Amino acid sequence: MYINNEWVSLADTIEIDNPATKETIASVPNGGKTEAKDAVDAAYAAFPEWAARTAADRSSILRKWFELIIRDQEEIATLMTKEQGKPFKEALGEVQYAASFIEWYAEEGKRIYGETIPASHPNKRLFAIKQPVGVIAAITPWNFPAAMITRKVGPALAAGCTAVVKPAKQTPLTALKLAELSDEAGFPKGVLNIVTGGAKDIGDAWLSDSRVRKLSFTGSTEVGKVLMKGAADTVKKLSLELGGHAPFIVCEDADLSKAVAAVVASKFRNAGQTCVCTNRVYVHEAIYEEFISQFKEAVGQLKVGNGLEENVTIGPLIDDSAVGKVKEHVADAIGKGGQIISGGSYSNELSGYYYQPTVIGKATDDMLCMQEETFGPVAPVATFKTIEEAINRANDTPFGLAAYAFTQNITQAIQISEKLEYGIIGLNDGMPSVPQAPFGGWKESGLGREGGHHGMEEYLEVKYVSLGL
Ligand code: ADP
């Protein structure tokens, strides 16, 4: 673990497994309440000096961190593939995406502007200024071991906050490598701390600590609700990036080959384990047969295997329970009349947690995979008759993170984007995530935004100053 710029080890450890081989590759300290508190002590002590620095000063250290991550990108990506499973090329893409948040916020930190406000009295002057919230806690998932950390600590550190971070227990190695590079970049003691270990102990310690003024969490809706309740006692600011259930609508006039390429990328990257992955596909009935035929052909090109091997495009799932959920969703869909177009089974011939990329035709809305996030490589395809019907079915869910639609009619595109109850809309685009745009969900998919100037606001408090002359 990395606390107060020192490496901390414990006799009690957690083993980290490679999901492609099920072999143990490393172990990290099994930290708990004590280490969680040590990290807050360090971050709290570091805050006044870090917050008082100029934005340009903080920016130059962040910039250095960005450059070091790019310098070591291949090493980080290899480590990520080993602990998380995603193919090396995809891991390299994540490292670059992760680094881009640090680069972007290093610049954006220089633009934290306030306001002057017209007064109600001639002898008064009114201002609103923005200040860092203080110590922030970030709790991150295993599906993006680097980017979910930098998307939170990039803006936080640029704003002048200090941070305590708990990476997912499956993927702490990438997080610790980022910490090593932050040390080399020259962050002062205690500005960034990484605690590995028991989620509940560490989470509870941070929730109950009134010095932690903000919690940013990415993970399941279920855990997000627990943390939201826990944050109430100390009224912490909250950002929650929770589960999704993304619909992908293909209109009759869509450019089919672009739609197919986009749905393959959106559905199968990270073996379907991203919160913005397409979870259900709605295709206009007139083009269903043609869509299915092109989709089947494209999915046939995908290669499942260990992500360190060349040409592999789909790695293993993270663990046994992930495979279990996929199997449950596929069995349920078949039981309800779904037609296996491709895949549909556990790849037993391989030693890791593999599942074949699967397309299910004739999907119906009563299937589990049409109602909840599968978080695996399964694409159920249903048909629709009118666009209103497709939008209503897309919106009929408690989730509202990402939604996709393909059409060449500009009016229809705008209408669809306005009617979908989602925080992120990909119109003729299956990969909308970038550091400069606001990412986040409606409904039970979350609170707050990450990315862009919106993402910076999450780490700032507004202070109104009324000056009498
Ligand atoms: P996923 O399904 O993606 O693993 P989780 O919501 O279970 O998502 O986990 C996301 C992160 O939240 C992980 O770092 C995990 O350790 C952490 N976590 C899980 N349960 C709790 C809890 N009760 N308190 C704090 N953190 C938790």
Automatic annotation (TrEMBL):
Classification via InterPro entries: Ald_DH/histidinol_DH, Ald_DH_C, Ald_DH_CS_CYS, Ald_DH_N, Aldehyde_DH_dom, Aldehyde_DH_Superfamily, Succ_semiAld_DH
Q: Does the keyword Oxidoreductase apply?
A: yes
Domain of life, per UniProt, equals Bacteria
Q: Which PROSITE patterns match?
A: ALDEHYDE_DEHYDR_CYS (PS00070)
Please indicate if the UniProt record lists Oxidoreductase as a keyword: yes
Q: Which GO terms describe its biological process?
A: gamma-aminobutyric acid catabolic process
Record family assignment: Belongs to the aldehyde dehydrogenase family.
Name-wise, this protein is NAD-dependent succinate-semialdehyde dehydrogenase
Write the lineage as a comma-separated list: Bacteria, Bacillati, Bacillota, Bacilli, Bacillales
